[in-house]
Design brief:
By secondary structure, the protein is of the alpha/beta class. The chain contains 4 helices and 6 strands. The protein is 20% helix and 24% strand. The longest helix is centred in the last third of the chain and has 12 residues.
């Protein structure tokens, strides 16, 4: 787990807590390039892949997702089960990245967590049906981003 950093008084802290992690941006659309389309006639092919187009390793493991001008993680970062840790670290705002389906359910689940209606220990189980891909939480723990511990220490 990452070491806590002191936050200056009055500074708000926001943390990316859910969604495919943005890893790179380009002026050229990666999806159009994948389909060998010119940038001035992309035909909005990204609309055919609303949650991105998953790229796999030679071994068939999901690795990255291309989504328009972004390269994203293939797995979905989820820190819902770590809400206690986030609060302890002084996180004020959680950033949730939208997805093509079930975004309203994901937001409602996080709202329930923040309001104390959903126990953090149940968060990932309840979130599971709404994930567009496997979850990960490795970056939060200072490990490979695609890793998943699957549970949080008691809070």
């Amino acid at each position: 787990m990452l070491a806590a950093m002191p936050v200056p008084a009055g500074m708000q802290t926001e943390l990316f807590a859910y969604g495919r992690m943005p890893l790179a941006h380009s002026a050229r659309c990666f999806t159009a390039r994948h389909y060998d389309l010119p940038k001035d006639d992309c035909q909005f092919c990204c609309l055919d892949h609303p949650d991105g187009l998953v790229l796999r390793t030679r071994e068939g493991q999901d690795f990255l997702a291309i989504n328009g001008v972004q390269i994203q993680s293939a797995k979905v970062l989820s820190l819902a089960h770590r809400l206690g840790e986030l609060r302890e670290r002084g996180v004020d705002v959680l950033r949730l990245s939208p997805q093509a389906r079930h975004t309203e359910r994901v937001v409602a689940l996080f709202r329930g967590l923040l309001d104390g209606e959903t126990p953090p220990a149940e968060a990932q189980h309840r979130l599971g049906p709404y994930l567009p891909a496997e979850p990960c939480d490795g970056y939060w723990r200072g490990e490979a981003g695609m890793d998943w511990l699957g549970s949080a220490p008691p809070t």
